[in-house]
Amino acid sequence: MKKILIILWLVMPLSAAAQKLDEGKFEVEKERVLRLSKASRSFERMPKTELSEGNTAQQYQLPRFNYALPLLAVNTSPLRQQVAPKKDENPFRNLAKAGFGNYNSPYAELFLTAPKDADWQYKVHGLHFSSQTGPVDGKNSGNSLNQIHGELAKFMDNGKIYGSATYRRDGLHFYGYSPLRSGTVERGDIRQTFSLTEIRAGYENTDPDATFRYKAEGGFYLFTDRYKANEAAFQLAGNLDAKLGETSYLTTDLSLDLINRRDEVGGQTRNLFIFTPKYEMRQEGFTISAGVRAVADGDSLTNQPKGRFYPVIHASADLVEDRLTAFASLEGNTIRRTFRSMAEENSFLGPNVGLAHTNQLWEATGGLRGNISAQLGFQIKGSYGVYRNLHFFANSAADSSKFNILYDRSKVPVFQVHGELSYATGGLKLIGKTGFFGYNTQDLARPWHRPLFTANLNASYLIENKLRVSSEFYHLAGIRAFSPRTGAQISLKPIFDLNLQIDYFINNQFSVFLGGYNLFSQRYQRFLNYDMRQLTVLGGVGIAF
């Protein structure tokens, strides 16, 4: 579950898939940034101020081209066992796409998928996208993304072995220097590059009738920037589900992160171990689980207890069978924060930023979900919790084109309300989400750069397997920033962004697409001093093979 405190960042890809192809879902997130400067680690305080399978038709999503190119977060569903193809099924399992857009933006993407009857299933995704120019000073706000990701899996009678490998390289610039800098700004002086190398492997017991079901996974990644910052992490995770009786189960989840981060100031080890045993009772129409989460936190940058315990209680009950379910939970956790995860939230980080895991002391959640009809579903939930080391972003006083990470060390109450509505019929699919957020910050005057309201609407319509129209509208409001130059609090303009993409499938093998992004052509700022691209257009072709 993505932690609700990681606020909806501006990541909106639009679907552009080839007709009837196996594809997984890849999403783009955001960029980040840094620069050299001999200094102590920044823990600034301000004056009180978290191969699909599907039906053999994968849905790949294009990057959000309006954004000053985000870091790609490869977000794929796992490979699943495939069945032999039917005689009338589209034989093409691979897809190549290429296009070009304004801001001098070439685009190329490749998807490869194993034959359905292969012993080893695999999928490979490659992507290049770059914009030579951007919204500020031409090439000074250009950006690029190159990424290759592959997955491999072997299915056995009662288990699955799987693995994946990723390499990603992102280039961008600190172009948020206006109006504080005068004169010519050299591209080389504001350039930033991030690279990620990651491998993962695991085994999962897939026997649905086994008394013990388990999954174990390990991985390693190296994340670096153009300067002297790098982060290496070895990760282990596993879970065990043991059946004790007809309706009772014992579940255990554990994770171990061995993280080593280095920058100009030096190195630090930030290990984190989480162990969560729970007892569950699963009956028809009712489920309850209760347990404890034990955490050993080796983060040396905080003065919190190194060992912590949290409650973990979940319950759900059907109020109306197959129509309406009530759910509630009470739990706490330590939320991992790394150089990699922070850079994915904000690409424009300054040098030597302080890193600290978030301590979710407790959070209570309650809500309802259900189906009004076979086509219409909904969910509404509210939560109230208390956190320590909640992080926020603020422009650096030394260089306002870069950001520091600020932490509220006190207990910060957080209130949230989320709603979701989905509708699907025939070729039409609609999903709408909204969120309200309230932060009672203690050490900081405002929840800097976190929106207080978010809303987005996704829609897609497939017409006779020939024409797909996809659209997303999203809105963020209530974002406040702090100017270190003037000491003023600044309210960023509400963001309204509309994207539209049209895919026309000439036949099973050839397609063309045309997309328009930020159709309102709004020059908004998600982060202070960083204008986003206005109207962006991208068109191209796809070939299945």
Please characterize this protein's 3D structure.
By secondary structure, the protein is mainly β. The protein has one helix and 31 strands. The protein has a 22-stranded antiparallel β-barrel. It has a two-stranded antiparallel ribbon with strand order 1-2. The N terminus is likely disordered.
Secondary structure layout:
Blueprint: E1 27-30, E2 71-73, E3 95-101, E4 105-113, E5 120-131, E6 143-155, E7 159-173, E8 191-205, E9 212-225, E10 230-243, E11 248-263, E12 266-269, E13 272-283, E14 286-297, E15 307-320, E16 324-335, H1 339-345, E17 358-371, E18 376-388, E19 390-395, E20 403-408, E21 412-425, E22 428-439, E23 453-463, E24 467-477, E25 480-482, E26 489-491, E27 495-505, E28 510-517, E29 525-527, E30 530-531, E31 536-544
Antiparallel strand pairs: 1-2, 3-4, 3-31, 4-5, 5-6, 6-7, 7-8, 8-9, 9-10, 10-11, 11-12, 11-13, 13-14, 14-15, 15-16, 16-17, 17-18, 18-21, 19-20, 21-22, 22-23, 23-24, 24-27, 25-26, 27-28, 28-31, 29-30
Question: What structural keywords apply?
Answer:
two-stranded antiparallel sheet; 545 residues; disordered N terminus; single chain
